[in-house]
Structure formats: structure tokens, C-alpha cells
Amino acid sequence: MIPSRASWEPDAEERLERFIGTLLRTGVVSAAVVALLGGVVFLARHGAEPASYSVFHGEPQDLRNVRGVVREAMTLRGRGLAQLGLLLLIATPVARVIFTLLAFARAGDRRYVVVTGIVLATLLFSLVGRRP
Fold first, then answer.
1. Is the pLDDT of residue 12 over 80?
2. Nearest 5°: CA angle at 101, between 99 and 102?
3. Pairwise CA distance, residues 103 & 70, whole Å
4. CA distance 6 to 28
5. Ramachandran quadrant class, 63 (left: phi over 0; alpha: psi -120 to 50; beta: rest)
6. Residues 6 or more apart in contact with residue 36 via CB below 8 angstroms
7. Rg of the chain's alpha carbons, rounded to an integer?
8. Residues 73, 83: contact at Cβ < 8 Å?
9. Cβ atoms < 10 Å from Cβ of 35
10. Nearest Cα residue to 116 out of 99, 92, 91, 131
């Protein structure tokens, strides 16, 4: 919840909260639809193939980065669409933090800008930071 400040109009705070709520709902529903579509496409194309559990096969190299996932999704491949759905799901709370940061900056609330900036930096580092 965004703290009330004397410089904020009550309408502006309510509009922002509605916008963020809509953003979260839209992001989650979009992610679910895209992932479901990916699952349906994948099963339609590969559902009858026998499963081989004796050897582990990781994700193809094309699906290990955002560019590859988007490329695969644009060609309507099931795995690419499913992965894109997961990326949309991950991007939804990140977008919420970004919009909240912008709202605090616009309101001139430096303390919350700093705290929200730390949260955003932590989220982004966890997504793109180096792993051993």
C-alpha cells in the first residue's frame, strides 16, 4: 500500500492502486493464457511421442535466454510459448515494483524511493546475476 502524503491527491492514490491491481491481474492472466497455449501446442505436436525417462534432456540452448524464448514463441512452438508464459509471470511483480518506484518518486518520497529501489535491484540481480 502506498502511504498517504499531503502532496498526494486522494484520487491520484486510488487511481494508482487500481492501475497496479489491473497490472497484476493482467500480467498473471496473460502469463497463464500464454503458458496454457504453449502446453496445448506442445501436446498437440508431441503428445503421442513416447516418453524416455532413462536419459535427462535439459532445455534446448535456444530456450535458455530471453531472446531465444521470444524467437521460439513467435514461431508458435509449444516450449517457447510455455517459457514465454513463465517469463511474463516473473515480469509481473517486477513491473509492479517499477511502477511503485515511479509513483514514490513522483510524490517526492525519498525514503520509499530508496527502499523500493533496493527491492528492485535485488529482484533484478536475482534474475540476471551470475550464478556459480
1. no
2. 65
3. 30
4. 33
5. alpha
6. 85
7. 20
8. yes
9. 19
10. 99
114, amino acid identity = V
Q: Which residue has the higher pLDDT, 13 or 132?
A: 13
CB-based contacts of 23: which residues, under 8 Å, 6+ apart?
92, 95, 96, 99
Parse the chain into domains and list their residue ranges: 11-47+54-128
**Buried b or exposed e, range 64-99, using 16+ CB within 10 angstroms:** eeeebbeebbeeebbbbbbbbbebbbebbeeeebbe
Q: Are 87 and 38 in contact (CB under 8 A)?
A: no
Altogether, the residues listed in the chain come to a count of: 132
Tell me, what DSSP letter sits at residue 4? P
CA distance 100 to 88: 18
Residue 122 identity (one-letter amino acid): T
Q: Which pLDDT tens digit goes with each residue over 23-61?
A: 999 999 999 999 999 999 999 998 888 888 888 878 888
